[in-house]
Design a protein that fits this description.
single chain, mainly alpha, two-stranded antiparallel sheet, 58% helix, Sterol O-acyltransferase 1
């Protein structure tokens, strides 16, 4: 070093900088080298440790070293104050939850009473249904206040009560509506029998209709025979008549299908036959029996059209509801129209396959127990099913549930509860402190419920429809970006959305002739009431903050549907995420501090 040059530290101090105890140099302004006359920023290297290094004495003060700090302080990885709080009275909570779930079993005798005609669904059944649901819900709420549980236990039992109420409502409503359809079908069948008296009676009308059906099908059979006759004029199958038409027993209703469709039909018919054989023989209404469904007398008869393997389907051997009533072919328009309406009503009483469950054969304890396991809030006669349970998949979702819950617990214990807002604390500061932790906690909780728990129960119940949420986006690029609140409400929670869509939105339009706008308002109003009810139970306060924010979504949705906003998806996405980030801490501050 020359006598005209300064040492690095001297030059550094001359530049107005300072050095910390850890050796970090901060330069407030560049210094000018006398040797080169150039401005230089001082950069020095010294032995230092990274922030996350466990040998760094200062690393224990870092927020990301929660587990290490907790072990050093308390002897265990996590602070268990929160665990002690939410595990309080755990046995009583578990027993209460079990009683809640078992109480929903009253739906089965209720549905059987509808089946036997002891109760008419409209309107006696509807009134009893809502009284039953209201009683169960408010009994659970009263019990939470009686036990004086903390907010976790109270919130859990209230939310689970709402879930059970929705499942009960869907089960009773669907069976009640099908009971009404069955009564309409029976009344219409009686009217058809009365109408046929004017044309010679029921048997004569059936014979005329079958003759008309064969007459209508004759040109199709003739066309098929021309296609199936080879150039030498010989039939392509030994089971065909001399003109090339497959040999079909007289009076049998038929249709032609390809090999793939035939195989599918064989599987469906076999399932129907198995269900029919296991059903009670004295059942007045049930799955229609497929008689003599064996290798020698299958309703699928081999044939050939134009050299291609084809099959004839005996329509009369299919379950009632899969084919129209024979009287739809009757020349009398009044009888034909009634038969068409009757066929449509019968199709509503039958599931879409593949086993074709028919109402009221679904009203069993086993069917209801399986429905309770299936992670859906909408009841159907039949769901798409998987063929097996994958133990490794169940194990994966179980591990993911507990692992993600550990992260959720850490975020709640370390970054939310210590920053619980107070009335004397700055409102803005509370929002900033809680915005990111609440957003992380929300995403973790979303993952636990809709990805882990729902998929786990779906696997155990052989439920094949696993779309419990969508990507929150109208785009098809699999980006988790909603551009409006109505899009988010449709996609983030599919089970609740489908329930509200069928049993609130569509029901009010069909039953009360509401407009779409009015039905949407009623749907949001009911949802807002349910959300506010949970907050009342959890906080023991009636503030209506969440109720108000829920209803504010309606004008936001209307604004978001304007062309100017819909075209600017980036702006919509920014507004959506700002609202999502601000919403959770805003509610926390409002309910806790005010």
């Amino acid at each position: 070093m020359t006598k005209h040059s300064k040492s690095p530290t001297a030059a550094y101090k001359a530049s107005g900088g300072f050095e910390t105890s850890t050796g970090t140099l901060y330069v407030s302004k560049p210094y000018r080298s006398k040797a080169s006359k150039k401005l230089r920023a001082l950069i020095t290297f010294a032995p230092r440790k990274s922030t996350f290094d466990i040998t760094n004495d200062r690393s224990s003060s870092n927020e990301f070293r929660t587990y290490v700090r907790s072990i050093e302080t308390n002897g265990h990885a996590l602070n268990l104050h929160f665990a002690t709080m939410f595990s309080q009275d755990a046995v009583t909570l578990a027993l209460s939850d079990a009683v809640l779930v078992l109480s929903t079993g009253i739906c089965v005798p209720f549905a059987k009473a509808l089946k036997r005609g002891w109760i008419r669904y409209y309107w006696t059944g509807v009134i009893l249904q809502h009284l039953l649901q209201t009683t169960i819900l408010f009994t659970a709420i009263y019990w939470t206040f009686n036990r004086d549980w903390p907010w976790v236990q109270s919130g859990y039992l209230t939310l689970h009560s709402l879930v059970m109420i929705m499942k009960m409502h869907s089960y009773i409503t669907v069976n009640g509506q099908l009971h009404s359809v069955s009564e309409q079908a029976n009344d219409l069948l009686a009217s058809m029998r009365t109408a046929t008296k004017a044309v010679g009676g029921w048997e004569e009308a059936m014979a005329v209709a079958q003759a008309k059906q064969r007459e209508l099908e004759a040109p199709q059979n003739s066309s098929s025979s021309q296609l199936s006759t080879p150039p030498n004029g010989n039939s392509s199958t030994s089971e065909s008549t001399p003109n090339g038409t497959p040999d079909v027993p007289e009076g049998m209703s038929t249709s032609y299908v390809d090999v793939k469709t035939a195989n599918a039909l064989r599987k469906r018919l076999a399932a129907v036959a198995a269900q029919s054989q296991s059903a009670p023989q004295d059942s007045d209404v049930g799955v229609r029996t497929v008689h003599n469904l064996n290798k020698d007398s299958s309703p699928l008869k081999d044939a050939s059209i134009n050299g291609t393997s084809t099959f004839i389907v005996e329509a009369d051997d299919l379950p009632e509801g899969l084919h129209p009533h024979p009287l739809v072919y009757h020349p009398d328009p009044q009888i034909s129209d009634m038969a068409k309406d009757y066929s449509e009503l019968q199709s509503e009483l039958l599931s879409s396959g593949p086993t074709y469950v028919r109402w009221p054969d679904n009203i069993t304890w086993k069917n209801f127990a399986v429905y309770q396991l299936i992670p859906t809030l909408v009841y159907e006669l039949e769901y798409p099913r998987t063929d097996r349970i994958r133990p490794l998949y169940v194990f994966e979702k179980t591990v993911a549930t507990f692992g993600t819950f550990a992260l959720l617990y850490t975020v709640t214990e370390s970054f939310i509860l210590p920053y619980t807002p107070r009335a004397d604390q700055s409102f803005l500061r509370s929002l900033l402190d809680l915005a990111l932790p609440f957003m992380i906690a929300y995403i973790l909780l979303f993952f636990i419920i809709f990805e882990c728990i729902c998929n786990g129960f779906a696997e155990l119940s052989y439920f094949a429809d696993r779309q419990f949420y969508e990507d929150w986006s109208v785009l098809t690029l699999h980006r988790w970006n909603s551009t409006s609140w109505d899009e988010f409400s449709r996609k983030w929670n599919k089970p609740v959305h489908t329930f509200l869509l069928r049993h609130v939105y569509a029901a009010t339009i069909m039953s009360y002739r509401f407009s779409r706008s009015t039905a949407m308002f009623v749907t949001f109003l009911l949802s807002a009431c349910a959300h506010e009810l949970v907050m009342v139970v959890v906080t023991r306060k009636v503030r209506m903050y969440l109720f108000t924010l829920q209803l504010i979504q309606i004008p936001l949705i209307v604004i978001g549907r304007t062309p100017a906003i819909k075209r600017n998806k980036l702006m919509g996405n920014v507004v959506f995420w700002l609202g999502l980030y601000a919403g959770f801490p805003l509610l926390c501050v409002a309910y806790v501090a005010y």
